[in-house]
Amino acid sequence: MKLAVKSVIVMVLLHLSSIATAQEIIEVVDSISEDEMVADTISIDELMSDKPKITQYDLKEFEWVDICYNPKYAIVSKDGKKGIYDMMLHKNVTEIEYRDLGFSKQTVAEDSAYISMFYATRGIKRGIVSIYEPTNNVVSIWMDDPDELYSLDECTTIDKKITRKATKLLDNLMESQQMENAQIVILDAKSGRLKTWVRLDRDMDKDEAGKLLVHSCTGSLTKPFHTVMALENDSVSLDCTKDGMSYRQAIKSCNNQIMLQAIRNGYRRSAVDRVWRELTDTKNSSTSPFILAVGYNSLANNGTMIIPTMKADSVNLEENVFSPSNIANLKDVLWVDRVASPQLAWLSTDTEWLGYATAEDIYEEEDKEHAKVIGKQIAFAGCFPVEEPRYTICIVGDKYDADVAPSLLQEVVNPLAKWLLKRK
User: Fold this and answer.
1) 89/59 Cα distance (integer angstroms)
2) Closest Cα partner for 124 from 112, 151, 109, 142?
3) pLDDT tens, residue by residue, 291-311
C-alpha cells in the first residue's frame, strides 16, 4: 500500500493557503530544495525507511511541556527553542530547533493513517511541519517569514555615498580578516533616520546570505544598559564594589561575572536566565545591529528612542525608555576611556565616543555534549562626537577563530568615523 508524499504536500499546501497568498505557495513549491522530500518521488516505503537521527532528551530536561489537542504529541521547550515530542513513545520527533511552534490540526492520509500538522517558524522561515503518525516521519514546507526580514525598498533616507563607503570598508574587512559575515548600521544621531544598513556574507549559498534579519546577532552590546538598570533597581551605586572592583570599572572592562551578578540582584529571578541568554547566546540570535544602533542612539537624544519605520522617512518615538539617572549613568560608563576600557583602546583619538565593544563565543554546533569554542561574534556600537553627536554606528561580525578581539573592527570604524566627520 503506497502513500505518495504528494498527497501529504497537497494537504500541507491547502492548509498553508490559510496563512499565505497563492503566489507565496507557488514560491514555496519552487523553493523546495533537493534535500527535501519531493512530491512525486517519495512513496510510503521511503517514508518508512531510516529517518535522520534525532537528538533525544529526557522529558525532565525540558523547560516546559505543552500537550497538544492530539495527546500523542507535545510541544517542548529547551534553551529558548521548541520541538515536537511523542508522549506515547517518549521520543523526540524533531530537533529542538523551532523559534515558534503550535499544533494546527489532525487530518487523514490516503491510507487512512493520521497526519498531525503544526505551524512553525525556524530561523527566517515559516511554514508547516507535518508528521505521518504511524512512523513519525516528518514532511515540512517553508517560505521566508516577512516578520523576520527588514526591507529597505521603501526607505527614502538611505545615503548612497555613505552606503558605498561602508560597503567598501566592510568588504575589505571581510577579505583581510576572513570574516564569515559582517553588518554595519549608520544612523543620523539627531534625526534618528537610517543612513545605511549593509550586510555581507562569505558563504553566498546560505539561505539568509545578505538579508537584513530581525534576529542576526546577540544583544551583548546592551550589557551596560541592563547592568545600569539592574543596579538602579537594587539601589546600588556605580561606585559600589564587587570582588574588589567598582561596578563602573566592571562595566568599562566588560567583566561578565560582575555584570551578571548585578543583573541577578536587580532583576526578577525568573527573567535573569532569559536575559543573559539573549546577551550571550550566539546560536540563538535575539536582535539585530539595527535595534542595537537605535538603543545607542538614544544616548544622543536624552533617552528617547527614535525608531525608523523604513517607510519613506517616518520614525516612531518611544520616550522615557530610560530614566534620567539611567541616561546619566550610561553616559558615565560608556564614555570611552581608552585606559579603563581596554577593549576600546583601538579607537582613534580623532573624536570622542559614547560606545562599547564585546566578543561572544561561537560554539561548534555539532558537539552539543561538549561544546567547543570555534569563533567569536565581535561587535561595537557608539555615537560621536560626545558633545554634539552626529552619527551612531553599530557593526557586528562573526569570525571562526577562537582568539579574536573587537579591535579587528578598527579597519572599518576609524576610517569611517573620520570620513563621516568631514561631511557637511
Assistant:
1) 12
2) 142
3) 999 999 999 999 999 999 999
